[in-house]
Predict the structure of Hflx-type G domain-containing protein.
Amino acid sequence: MTCSQIYDRYSIVLNVFKSQANTKEAKLQIALAEIPYIRNNLRVLEKSGQSRQKGWLHTTGGSGQTWIEIRKQLLRDRESKLTKLLDKIESNRELLRVNRAKKQFPVIAVIGYTNCGKTSLIKALTNDQRLVPRNQLFATLDVTVHTGRLASSLRVLYTDTIGFISEIPTALIHSFKATLSEICFADVIVHVLDVSHPNHQLHDQTVSQTLDQINVPEKLKNSIIEVSNKIDLVEDQETLQNSNRLLVSATQRIGLDQLMDAIEKQIIINTGRLEKTLRVANGGLEYQWLYKESAIRESNVDPNDENYLILQIYITIEAFAKFKHSFRDSFRELS
């Protein structure tokens, strides 16, 4: 007779997470997620007859505590220590958010079920060759940030987030709340769905349920850009035609222009940016300032005077106020 070890869903997910954890934050979050699992096993052990047979309920040492009580106390101490360490990391993350907000870079959170192609999509959108997508579950356990530019030259930040999974234990979600909270602070969410997967409809439901669990603001949820990825792997292309989702293949670079246009439009709406048409001197200080501080959608020479340009721009309210203060008499606002 052979003995086989039995794993439940929680322990399997934990083991997969452990094998993929590379950063300090990921390892801390997994260690914290493991504590409720160990605590539950102690609870089961405490109620079993085996604990009495082996004397685990008898007092030990000078403390008057049982073996199980000592283990519970050790877990509480470890949980407290891990929570403090993660709170410190979250404080640093909050500082980074404040700095990004000061620079007014729009943030796009790219989310989806595990192994749906989020990293591949970000690589395609940013042309960041340092990104190495991996065809495996939970290849991303940390939030990573990548710079990109849209067609209007608007500089944006894409955040690559941890993949979701169905029936994930609540304790796991709680342990990764600092990482998942980055989604709530984004300006736009792009939900990537691997439409070639046979269970993609279930994956879609799982993502929606997880967003509810981490309390994503309604405004953000209602403006999610839905993307069907890996369309090149779908045999029956007709099944895709009735979809309201953007059809994309990150690896084949299909549909990227339409996606970037959709991202740009949603950023303008969600961030309250202004759309302005200005007449400025060709090559003057005004143009140089706007090139750095705004997104120039279109630039044309003034047909009535080639010394001037007609610019169509996206600009934040704060930046436009600074521009008007600095150049109040040297430009004309056309719309």
